[in-house]
Amino acid sequence: MTTQQAINNYLKYTGHKSLDIQVALIDCDGVLYDSMKNHTRAWVKLMQKNGIKCTRDEFYMLEGMTGTEIIKRKFREGAGKQVTDDEALAYYRVKGRYFEEMGGAPVMPHTADALAVLRQAGVRCVVVTGSQQHTILERIDNDYPGVFDAVRVTGHDVRHGKPNPEPYLKGMEKAGVKSHQCIVIENAPLGVQAGHASGCFTIGVTTGPIPEKEMYRAGADIVYGSMEQLAAQLPELLVAFQATQS
């Protein structure tokens, strides 16, 4: 899909007359950090330790939900067990320990390039993630100095994780903007679905094994094959957004 086709389709289904992009609402795992490889391995280890059969790809598809929501769902479906909030939190801490033992998460290549384009265009960058993993959340300002707004939405701030639009609606509320003033950058279908449902122009980036068609099926307005491709195409996209205001 071309940039112009994506924008035209967005304006048609939302009813907006133009796009005045002031804020980028950006996912963390799989966008800022190349963390999903170890996250999925840690999830599988936790589930197998508790007798639940699963594959790593299942957790790529669930990425964006809060950790406790994932635990409740998988224990219910895989073991027929209802997990309390306290139990889910305890399991999540174990999963977090596995994640750290596996080496945590390196910075995603070329994400800094994409963020630099946004910043140069005067677009505020805001983290919106279902993650509750404090080790990554605490790293953001060190790994991306001066990039991110103090406004931040995490799994601790919402009752309903992605695919519910609440995280992005909360992000817009905290940033003081409307949907036609935001873009969402996501790497997984549930996050894309949440961005789409919030009314924002939603960009999917296939940094993991999820095929492009799954991103479009979830509601992405446009999909890029890597952060490198996104960084290269962002200037054109931002110019096209501006052109809708004339």
List its salient traits.
246 residues, six-stranded parallel β-sheet, single chain, alpha/beta, 2 domains
Given helix and strand content, the structural type is: alpha/beta
Strand arrangement across the biggest beta sheet: 3-2-1-4-5-6
Helix content: 40-55%
Q: What is the top-level CATH class of the largest domain?
A: Alpha Beta
CATH architecture field of the largest domain? 3-Layer(aba) Sandwich
Distance separating the two termini: 23 Å
Q: CATH homologous superfamily of the largest domain - what is it?
A: HAD superfamily/HAD-like
- Overall geometric form: globular
Layout of SSEs?
Blueprint: H1 3-14, E1 23-26, H2 36-49, H3 56-62, H4 67-79, H5 85-101, H6 111-120, E2 124-128, H7 134-137, H8 140-143, E3 148-153, H9 166-175, E4 182-186, H10 189-198, E5 201-205, H11 212-218, E6 222-224, H12 227-243
Parallel strand pairs: 1-2, 1-4, 2-3, 4-5, 5-6
In short:
This protein is of the alpha/beta class and 246 residues long.
Task: Explain what this protein looks like in three dimensions.
It is built from 12 helices and 6 strands. The model has no long low-confidence stretch (mean pLDDT 92). The radius of gyration is 18 Å and the shape is globular. With 246 residues, the protein is an alpha/beta fold. Helix 11 links the parallel strand 5 and strand 6. Helix 2 packs across helix 5, helix 4 crosses helix 5 and helix 6 packs parallel to helix 12. It has 2 domains: 169 residues, HAD superfamily/HAD-like (Rossmann fold, 3-Layer(aba) Sandwich); 66 residues, Putative phosphatase, domain 2 (DNA polymerase, domain 1). The protein has a 6-stranded parallel beta sheet with strand order 3-2-1-4-5-6.
